[in-house]
Each structure stands twice: as structure tokens, then as C-alpha cells.
Amino acid sequence: MLEIFQSLRLTLLNTGYAKLNALWDFDNVISPFTRMYYITKGSAKVYHSNKVFDLKPNHIYLVPSYTYARYTCEDYHEQYYISFLEDISNGLSIYGIKDFEYEIEADQNCLYYFQRLVELNNNRKIKNSNPKTYDNRPTLQDFIKQNDTLNAKELLETQGILTTLLSKFITNHKINKDHVTPNKAIYLIQNYINENLHAPITIDELANKCHYSTDYFSRLFYKTHGIRPNKYIQSKRIERAQLLLLTTTSSLKEIAQKVGFENLAYFSRTFKKHTKKTPAAFRKEQVTI
Asked: What is the mean pLDDT of residues 212-234?
């Protein structure tokens, strides 16, 4: 198991310093890379993993890859930012084998690491903070190629800083074998589900993507997650709906459609089955807390 962890590879995409205002307001962001922030001034919010994170100065934040997120800033804030790809043996993700915090108070070295990374890679700034302008496969390939412009010293130092910063978010020192996804195909299917909750998803479709029979795929998925694929998809749709109810002003019908329910009544019944509350009651309760 340690050999898997030792194969961790981090690939820098972007880094820079940004001064942001209320235009920093983006919903339905699901990126194939990890984001990291060091806040220096002001305040903002990031919603992901069913939590709300109030971005505060002298704190660093982690948003894992393939995680639905929403970003908002009511007034103004300044941040150092980093985005990078991560993978381990067999193309899996470190987030499948370790537990992470997503917000930590920065120690005395963190600011230096962010500043040094920008200094080493001063041509890696994001020109437009809207994820739609850079969060796509062709543009990511252009970012990856920029690593070829680094010399050996710069590349090793860049990778060392990324590894050091990522390690600060890990909450346990032992690899959690219960969280290991034993099959790359199942891990990729998890990402596919996260990216496509707004659309119909069938088990036959998922099995075909893995080149497995439907029965074998279902058994392997159950062995990995302890839940049948259909129930897993449904639970992820409800999790996403809860976050949308909390972080947007979208109507119930709009939210239902965003998480793959064309029928509002069926969405409401399913939501109540999972949460013991109707969507409207859940939203009202959260707003008044």
C-alpha cells in the first residue's frame, strides 16, 4: 500500500495572486484538478463537500478534484491560488486513500511557499477568473505543457512545494484501506457520475464505459462502496440538491433539473425519503438557522 502512496504525482496547472470582487460568483464548478487558496485580505465563501467554508485571511483552503463547488464573494478579497492535477498508481486519486481537512490555519511557512511557487512559475496566472474560460480539456493541456519550460531545479522545487502544501491537509498518518478504490474504472465512474448528475445515468451506460457486463459492474461497485449503483447515484443527486438549496436562489424546479429529476413531485418525494424533509422545508430551515 505504501508503494501506491509513494507513486503520487502532482502536476502544476496555474498559480498566481488575484484581487477579486463580487464578480467572483460561480456555480456548478466541477474541475478535474485540485484547487488551493491562501487568503490574504477580505472574505469570500466556497461551498463543497456539503459544507460552507468562510474564506479568512491567513488560512489555506483545499478543493479536491471532481468535487462540485460554488464560489461567492459579496465584496472583496485577495488570494494566492494554485491548481494542479494529482494521481497515484494506476491513475487513481489520493483522495481515495486519505482523509483530508479542507481548511487549516496557515503556519509561518505557508505564505512563503505560495509566494515562491508564483515566483518560480510567474507565467502561470489565470487571466480570467471565470472557470468556463480555463476549465476545459484543451486549455488544461496547454497549462500542462508549460511544465516543460521549467529547468530541473525549478521543476523539483515546484513539485516539492506542491507536495508539502498538500500534506498539510491530510488528517491521518496511516493509509485508510477502507477508502481505497481497488479499480481505476470504478474511480473514473465516480468522477463521471459527479460531472453528470444533471443528466440521465443508466447502469448499462456505466458498465459499458468500464467494458464490463452490467452484472459484474454492479457487483464490483457494491464491493467497493457497499451500496448499489442506482442508490449511490440517487444519494449523490440529493447531496447536490441540498447544496444547491443552501447556496443558490434557484427554484425547486430548477434545482430538480440540475440534479437529474425532470419530475418535481418525484424529486420532492425522493428528497424527503433521504432527508426526512421536503426541499422547501429544508431550505427554509437552513435559512433561518
From this structure: 91
